[in-house]
Automatic annotation (TrEMBL), chain A:
It comes from the Bacteria. This is Formate dehydrogenase O alpha subunit /selenocysteine-containing. Gene3D superfamilies: 2.40.40.20, 3.40.50.740, Dimethylsulfoxide Reductase, domain 2 (3.40.228.10). Residues 663-779 form the Molybdopterin dinucleotide-binding domain. GO terms for molecular function: 4 iron, 4 sulfur cluster binding; electron transfer activity; formate dehydrogenase (cytochrome-c-553) activity; formate dehydrogenase (NAD+) activity; molybdenum ion binding; molybdopterin cofactor binding. Pfam families: Molybdopterin (PF00384), Molydop_binding (PF01568). Belongs to the prokaryotic molybdopterin-containing oxidoreductase family. It comes from Mesobacillus selenatarsenatis (strain DSM 18680 / JCM 14380 / FERM P-15431 / SF-1).
TrEMBL record, chain B:
Pfam families: Fer4_11. Its EC number is 1.2.1.2. The keyword Plastid does not apply. [4Fe-4S] cluster 2 binds at C23, C141, C144, C156. [4Fe-4S] cluster 1 binds at C13, C16, C19, C160. The keyword Metal-binding applies. It comes from Mesobacillus selenatarsenatis (strain DSM 18680 / JCM 14380 / FERM P-15431 / SF-1). Keywords: 4Fe-4S, Iron, Iron-sulfur, Metal-binding, Oxidoreductase, Repeat. This is Formate dehydrogenase O beta subunit. It is found in: Cell envelope. The lineage of its organism: Bacteria, Bacillati, Bacillota, Bacilli, Bacillales.
Automatic annotation (TrEMBL), chain C:
Its cofactor is [4Fe-4S] cluster; Mo-bis(molybdopterin guanine dinucleotide). Residues 46-102 form the 4Fe-4S Mo/W bis-MGD-type domain. It is found in: Cell envelope. It comes from the Bacteria. This is Formate dehydrogenase O alpha subunit /selenocysteine-containing. Its EC number is 1.2.1.2. The keyword 4Fe-4S applies. Keywords: 4Fe-4S, Iron, Iron-sulfur, Metal-binding, Oxidoreductase. Signal peptide: none annotated.
Amino acid sequence: MTNHWSDLQNTDCALIMGGNPAENHPISFRWLTKAKEKGGKIVSVDPRFTRTSSKADVYASLRSGTDIAFMGGMINYALENNLIHREYVAEYTNASFIVKKDFEFNDGLFSGYDEATRKYDKTKWAFETDEEGNPKKDKTLTHPRSVFQLMRKHFSRYDVDSVIAVTGTPKEDYLKVCETFCSTSKIGKSGTIMYAMGTTQHTVGTQNVRAFGIIQLLLGNIGLPGGGINAMRGESNVQGSTDFALLYHLLPGYVGTPTAIPEHATLEGYNTKETPSGGYWSNKPKFLVSMLKAWYGPNATKANEFGYQYLPKGNKNYSHINLFNAMYKGELEGAFLFGTNPVVGGPNAGKEKEALSNLKWMVAVDLWETETSAFWQEEAGSDPSKIDTEVFLLPAASSYEKEGSVSNSSRWMQYRWKAIDPKGESLADLEIIHMLVKNLKGLYKNESSAAAKPINALYWNFGEGHHPDIDLVAREINGYDLSTGKLLKGFGDLKDDGTTSSGNWIYSGFYPEEGKNRSKNRDNKDTGGGNFLNWAYAWPANRRILYNRASADPSGKPWSDKKAVIWWDESQKKWTGNDIPDFKPTVAPADPGGTNPFIMINGGVAGVYAPTLNDGPFPEHYEPFESPVKNSFSSQEINPAVVIIEGEFNLKGDSKKYPIVGTTYRVSEHWQSGSMTRNQEWLSELAGHMYIEMSEELAKEKGIKNKDKIIVSSARGDIKAYAMVTKRFKPHMMNGKKVHQVGMPWHFGYKGYATGDTANRLTPHIGDANTTIPEYKAFLCDIRRAD
Amino acid sequence: MAEYIKYVDVTKCDGCRACMVACKNWNDLPAEPEEFQGSVQSHANVTANTWNVLSFIEHEDSKGNLDYLFRHSSCFHCSDAACVKVCPEDAMHYTDFGTVDVNSDKCVGCGYCVQNCPFDVVQLATYKDKNGKEYKKAQKCTMCVDRLEEGMQPACVTTCHTDAMEFGTQEEMLKKAEKRLSEIKDKYPNAMIYNPEGVGGTHTIYVLAEKPSVYGLPEKPKVPTSAVVWKDYAQPIGKMMLGATSMALVGAFVSNKLFNKEGKGHEEDGGGSHE
Amino acid sequence: MVEINLNRRQFLKLSGATAATLAVVELGFNEKEVHAQTKELKIAKATVTPTICAFCGVGCGILVHTKDNTVVYTEGDPDSPVNEGTLCSKGTTIRQVFTSEKRLTKPLYRAPGSKKWEEKSWDWMYETIAKRTKETRDKTFIEKENGMFVNKTEAIASLGGAALDNEETYLLAKMMRGLGVVYLEHQARI
């Protein structure tokens, strides 16, 4: 989230799309209810009329997988009706940049496409630059090759009628959404976009989010209270676990992993290639070297490139989908699973389950026996005698049986204290990880093989006992000035010469001095604007609203007093206000860079044009991998830059055999794969049955009555569930064709108190072109009565 | 002493059902999973171990506009409560807050309260004594009277994140309800305050977005005449005649018909039943 | 330990805006009488510990009431500016994460081809897992590729971690990268 939960109360309009916060992030509605009481509007866009929709002022339906068409139309609506914050756009975005003549767009393809590799040559999308390498600009936004004009041209194809022919949205509803949300372009108004996995779990997921970014920049909504782009995180610490880089392509703090390319052969080479010339990322070498100092301690020296060579360097995409594909092919021997249940939660889950039996060993750390750790059981439909996988199931302590911090969607790092000893023999994951490392280090202690070197060099100094000292871990994350041994005050003090350490630079400063772990802060006095600066700690640097420099005009004055966050105080010669400036506090508006609010980006302005993405600098509508209709925007059916896994792991369904659009979602009472909640009786009681929601029209066509047992099938598998016939799903009419959609919760499996078939046995094994996040949210299926 | 009531503004509720589990959590009530209801609703009705149920209603108005309505349903804590009237053991009683509670020590499980509740909220729970013998006790929402006595609000109210439920003095809550009603009349022309006079007003009052029947509530509930007859005439006479200590014994002789559920029908004028 | 002091008095004060209007004094209750009539309030002698909800990313504050080595009640933390004492159904029920009879309480091992779990000691688990990890790692370790150091194994994967604490995710990332694991993924991707 650029903003935070309680800030939602400041919004004039919340566009909720690709998410259903009333059901999945219920407490957000505490703040949205307050916004409503102050006259704010809620707009809900969803294929199904949800509980969020029921609380909305405006609801519009769309077919799953048509978000770019929907948002592209809104961008066009804003541009055509001049409902944009023009000065903001000209000053704070790259709309004024001139793009080279190489950029082209024809029939769904941007220039530079290579069909054989399904990749773009992104140099074709570059900006024109001056002698110093800075992009050329036209702040009048009239140059025909300015980003602004190219954007206008690109989205001019998204006129209302073309859009609704794809999305199936009733025209009146569509116009109402555009009108309501674009009204936040007015100075003194702000609008927020709230989304979740309904946005990202598509082959065009990244571009779905990009479309949100573009409209929010055009409306001047980023950096403002009640504004921003707010991804609602689904797990208590998925923000933190991402910050700490449990992802193949990242190191802590969003530093990219070095890969097996010649440029990354040395630390210097990596730094040269990966460090931009401007923006805050120009400090990347400081972040990386300080992390290496935290990881390898005294074994990280200038002479050995601070241990850079110890880091593993991969040579391909190792993301979830590819991981399971490799497992399926027998390329993996062992796996560690920390609180995860892919046999329910993974795409094409039936096949992911099969893949597990190719492992030699599996370590599962969990509170419960899950469908995944029990994949070898007869109950799972397996023949145990034929499965040779050794499984180690380690009982983990729950969140309040140990202490530690978690980072919520707002980036607030909040401490959890220990309320009770771990149940039975269960142990905190911290201890389990610590003991595994100690045992491994013990085995390698006297070896000097190639494999032994990196593990022997790993600095592991968290106390002598079985249970590591969590305070030492916290301090290592914050980092030290190694010359004095003192804790660092913040990431501004990091150096690239080995004299500082920090396990994760974005968190540096949360523990600035002895006895001051700021994640433990519990002063809930409102410090202004509802930002609660003394409650917990928000990375980076305790800033609550990112890009808050953009809440003020170029001269440093808030665009509107009603939406003030920070402002330039000439008498004090610094930025001041209700939040920590997300900006160098002493850089005056007239100073170089003084009007560049987007400090992380080289050039300091936001990108309405993104020449770095794999699938194009502007979002473009493509149909999902499986779609009931042809793409009416171009002859490119699916995102031309996605990687298609061929073979039985990703069978594709034909729209003749599977004419219905299927999607998945969550319910309030269950959480993710359900292992936490289906093992609790009160929640299992509230949501105890697997069901498929469908419209009355579809039920009638299929001869299905409410509560009937039905079978849903896709090219990947079949599942059985109850029919829930509802008025809240309606068929979509597109170009005169009626397309049905069904939806279902994906929480169920065969373990726990509440059991049911697993929806993900239906979903395909294909991911987004940039993130490889699977396309769970739009696939084809068919339904029939079970008897 | 001022009377206290729970005010439920269904138009603010977003159906999260925290009130249902907060109730179970505070009152240590067991789960009792029911079969699939054909909607996301978990229980058809409140029961002896599920003291409040969130009902989910898909409602299309006369213009075909769809709304998804939610209602936290639990004991109404009537001012003139049929359950109190018919209870032969004075187990059902009014608390100092004006709410209705069951004294389990006194309850003999006769079920008259169950039969006579105009809202179907009282039910019998079955327990076993140490010899394995089953016995029954009437159970329902207590309005968390143990919390009230400690100056705390009912558990369901405390947990409600949209402030769809509030607890306070009757006067203050009724004022809030009136104000809210005026705010939502434009959006919900059928909106009303549900605080039925036929039972002397209630200690759980609602602002409803639609007519009571849309929520499965009786439009004009009344204390059944039979209950009035029983408590106000038959019971005192019976006690006098028999000198019995347990009126449940007497109750057993009273014709089933007097307490018959079906008999309740004529007490109401119209209105739907819980479905 | 907990760095706040939520004693009973404060807790009551925080329990909701109208608590004051329901003051014991106004109601004329004699405390002794109340206790004589009803059982002791279930959280009266419980220890209160603040935590953050383990479910979605909102990060609501929760108070965990513990007594006699079990969890007797869980409710919203009225101090938290995120949820101001309120919770959803999942957050409210977090008590059962501890009390559920389905919790694993012992390390379990499943041998190749076996139909059942066997209970094992933690030490045995650590030692055996470390041994398996080392065997696989040593066999598949790639020190160099095209002349450059790559120090990786492509035969071990690590999945999950979105419910771990920050400190745990940090150690997990450090451990896995330290081992040369490149198949490092978790729920943020799915």
